[in-house]
# Entry
Amino acid sequence: MRRWHAQAVMGLAIVALAVQTSMLILQEMQDTYKTRDNTSSSSSSKPSLPPAPSPPTTSSPAVPVLAAGAGQGPGGGERLMSDVGMQELRAGGSTDIAIGIAHKIHAVQLAVFVKSLRAFSKCDIVLFVDELGKEVERIGKDAGVNFILFKTAEAKVERTRTFHPSTVRWPLIHQFFSLFPDKYKRVLMADIRDTAFQGDPFEILKDSSSFLVFTGVQDRPIGQCGWNGGWVRDCFGQEMFSRLSSKPIICSGISLGTMDAVKVYLQAMNDNIMKEEFAKCERNGVDQGVHNVLVHTDKIPHLRVYKQDDGLVANMQAHVMKFRSGKVYNVNNELARVVHQYDRDLELQRMLLEAYVDFEWHKESKGEGECEGYTIRDNFELFKGLGDIKEEGKFPTFQDCCRQCNLLPTCKSFTHKAADGEPALERPDPCSLPHGRMEGMIAAALRTWQAGPSRLWLLGPGVVVREGENTERRDREEEERRERRAEEKEGEEEEEEDAEEGERRRRRL
# Structure
């Protein structure tokens, strides 16, 4: 009995000693992790989130930033993508940055943007893209572009998955700068697909703190523009629309600013776009409505508004600045540093393509799927908009146009206008448009038929061209025939107008 008791006491002592040793080891591990965390927070190379916001002052708006450690955006913390996808920045030593979204960007458009920019600036370039084609990736690599992959349909916030890229770019850019709050001093936020450079854009920023915006179309105010007025009214209500009705239209395609002012602007854009009710009014171009409200209600610090007459950022849609001798100038004969919407001037666009596109981009391919049996020529407009399918805004994709053409026995060709993202258009991709409206990225589709042993190409109603014939002669004859058709149609319309006018006169008598 005594022997058993002694063994039991010894066993309990051993257990107690083991428990005490385990507790000491656990305490030592906790102290080690605390030390490691403290060291990591002070020496980590990864970007840290900005500090908590300072209280606002009456002299200038405070810069809203994320709460440290929150890992979430303001107003509920909704972020469209993981921070990890933005943190791997291949940055240089520049404190200037050009940033934007380039969803479905054509390699030609990217080449003009990055190569013309690189001719004048060594700034960092960050572009959000939904896919990387081989040519796009090559151009970006050569120019040192940082691509961030983001698919709108896979956004973390479900209600934003149907948003237009021009809308989601603002929460994305806001999120990006929350991860790099102190790296950059000057920021260019730009449309990518239709912007080119004639000088260093950052030279326009003369002051230590400023935010520069530029007018768009100047021949009408917001209240007289169905697009811009509609965006303001639908998202902010009739009262705000009335308040801004007489104000000038400010284009959201190009903005320049110092980092302090840019943070305030992006916070406001993000807060408006990420509201749950915003989804009800969201559509292509609506971000310009938000942009105009912020500008005209004094929500942006250090704001300066430049007109097309004397500004150094050209908006070619406004038709104020002039293209001459290979350059774009404002009314004061000053060289524009940035040229936005250059595709509104075909001669200007042609010159930029010749200067910056160094690869073959007029490609011919065989159609697939609904387009099987078609020869597709990228970046060609063979029919001056007079293809066999005239409908606009009815067939949103190339495949839909082919499907419609297949249903019509007389349909043999059409010219497809690719989506260009321009808010003022706001329509699905048309198949063929009236003469003179096919500028931009286009492709001609020629339906091929079998007729006996040789294949025939049918280019429009009544024209049959055997494969292998002289292409130049064929295209020239087709162009002449189309022009005659257009002239005949114009003459018929004039005759109808004359007849109607005669009838009105007889009725008055």
About this structure: Residues 385 and 433 are 5 Å apart (CA to CA). Residues 24-76, 419-429, 433-441, 449-474 have pLDDT under 50 and may be disordered. The chain is about 35% helix and 15% strand.
